[in-house]
Design a protein that fits this description.
CATH architecture: Trefoil
CATH class: Mainly Beta
Structural class: alpha+beta
Number of domains: 1
Helix content: 10-25%
Order of helices and strands: HEEEEHEEEEEEEEHH
Number of strands: 12
Radius of gyration: 17 Å
Largest sheet: 6 strands, antiparallel
Strand order of the largest sheet: 4-3-2-1-10-9
Amino acid sequence: MTDTLTVDEAVTQLAEHYKQWVIGAGTTRPVMPQNTFREGSDRNNNLKNTRTRKFLQYEEQTFGINLGWTDDASPQTPRRVSRWFFARSGGATGQLHYGEPIAVGYGKAPSFLRYEHRTVGINLGWVTAPVFEWKLLGGVAGRPVNCGDRLAIQNAKAGSAQVPGVLIYFDRTVGGDIGWPDSQTWWDQAKDKLPGLAKDVVTKLVMAKLNGA
């Protein structure tokens, strides 16, 4: 990003930066909900990060939440880590949509991720019951989500009015390499390219882009 970018170009680049994820990489089916993990279910998914080109997985850590990255993205890897699933509140079983509240789970016990303060690593924890504080962003709100889409994953309790609470790859010294925009100086560096705009205004513009507006 350079100082010669227009506001619209800069905001678009910020929004694109947050679209780091692909659900079900290598497949082209709809993203469907399930409330509990089932071995072999066609509603289980891998979760690939486009920055690292690796897959997020459950991984024991000395410090922080037990999340980490696969060593590679070989053809066997996405099948092995296809253990992510997404729960919807209520009984509807149809395709997930951009912008609707969902819970994010992984095929282990306890299964579900929620926002939780930690002294080390990203502020996430594992819980048994689904917590509907997540949204998939990057397409027009209300449109269906498909495997292979590039998208952002937002937590309603993370971030602030000034910084969006979306998951991103973040190179940590300790703990799994995952974070939020305010886990690093990248956000401050990026918003400085938008002179005259406050952080909360930038955030609103970026989130509007992520919602397809």
